[in-house]
TrEMBL record:
It comes from Tenacibaculum tangerinum. This is Histidine kinase. InterPro entries: Bact_2-comp_sensor_kinase (IPR050640), HATPase_C_sf (IPR036890), Sig_transdc_His_kin_internal (IPR010559). GO terms for molecular function: kinase activity. The chain crosses the membrane at residues 12-33, 39-63, 75-104, 116-137. PANTHER family: SENSOR HISTIDINE KINASE YPDA (PTHR34220).
Length: 350
């Protein structure tokens, strides 16, 4: 309510100025061929009042309530009423001047004030200008409101996407932590020299998983270092029952990628990998060019473990879609005793 009052107070001087200019236009236009200032004053004033009433009827009633709401028949009906009113008002104005200022001597009236068609054109021209301005302002306001609504909707969608992305980035399975802690407990009981190194690697990895994940981008070198730490921890746990090959062919280590983009694939391979003859085999190949990152990983598996991988990889696929908008390429295949993941993503170099 307060905004409406302030808006009205702001617009009032503009309306007064506009109608003052309209009155002046009428006075100067119809004064051609006449020196009767008193007649011109009253004639112009009455004509201005008719124009003001007609303009406000159209701009604040007929246009917003009927035309813009697509009630075309009602708009046409009430427009007809308004035109009849204006015609009647113009006729009365001409008769008023004819009777009271020129003593029924029609030939003594100024030429322009005797022509009803000229008077109507002037009146309807002003009403048309006011109505056109109202339609344009309403359309502009509608566009602005639609744009604001779209921006609000997009902002809400973006916030939801950010929350979903953050959730997906955190989805490294807790079984790794439990298994590593159990192995660490065993090393501690044996007072193994590997225990301090294991604690350090686990601490670094947890820091990366829990805190660095909030960053939009990290160095590829950092992601590789934490993959190496992850593999080292798993080697400590599996001892001689694990065979991991991690081949790196890097064009540039200073490129940046989203955190936790590659590590979940490695974690997934360990979780669902199946030992063959007592040994789990995992092969990883990471290659980068000036424009692309290519990550390939394969592990031994069987049909049972392959079926369990759906949810994790599905979540990774969702994250890739949000990050790269179909510019990434993820291919997951399974044949015989092998499970393979082939990922390609575009890169931006610094």
């Amino acid at each position: 309510m307060r905004k409406i009052i302030i808006s009205s107070l702001y617009k009032t001087p503009l309306h007064i100025l506009y109608w003052g200019l309209v009155w002046l236009f009428f006075y100067l236009f119809f004064s051609v061929g006449s020196s009767n200032a008193q007649f011109l004053f009253w004639f112009t004033s009455i004509l201005s009042i008719i124009t003001i009433i007609g303009s406000y009827v159209f701009t604040y009633n007929l246009i917003p309530n009927y035309l813009l709401t697509k009630k075309y028949w009602s708009f046409l009906l009430y427009t007809t009423y308004a035109i009849v009113f204006i015609l009647f008002g113009v006729l009365v104005t001409v008769v008023f001047g004819f009777v009271f200022f020129f003593n029924l001597e029609f030939q003594n009236m100024p030429a322009l004030t005797k022509s009803s068609s000229v008077i109507l054109v002037c009146v309807f021209l002003i009403i048309a200008l006011a109505s056109g301005f109202k339609i344009l302002s309403s359309n502009y306001k509608s566009i602005e409101e639609k744009r604001a609504l779209e921006n609000k909707f997009l902002q809400t969608q973006l916030q939801l996407k950010e929350q979903e992305l953050k959730f997906l980035k955190m989805q490294i399975h807790p079984h790794f932590l439990f298994n590593t802690l159990n192995t660490l407990y065993g090393f501690a009981l044996k007072k193994s020299d590997q225990a301090p190194d294991m604690i350090l690697k686990l601490s670094n990895l947890l820091d990366y998983i829990l805190y660095q994940v909030d960053k939009p981008l990290v160095l590829l070198k950092s992601e590789i270092e934490h993959i190496d730490d992850y593999i080292s921890l798993e080697k400590m746990r599996f001892q001689k029952n694990l065979n991991v090959r991690f081949q790196k062919d890097l064009y540039n280590e200073t490129v940046q990628i989203p955190p936790m983009l590659l590590l979940p694939f490695v974690e997934n391979a360990f979780k669902h990998g199946t030992p063959i003859n007592g040994v789990m085999n995992i092969s990883i190949h990471l290659k980068t060019t000036s424009k692309e990152l290519h990550f390939y990983i394969e592990n031994n598996s069987n049909k049972t473990t392959t079926k369990r991988k759906g949810i994790g990889l599905e979540n990774i696929q969702k994250r890739l879609e949000m990050l790269y908008n179909k510019k990434s390429n993820l291919i997951v295949t399974s044949k015989e005793n092998l499970f393979m993941v082939d990922l390609k993503i575009p890169l931006k170099n610094d």
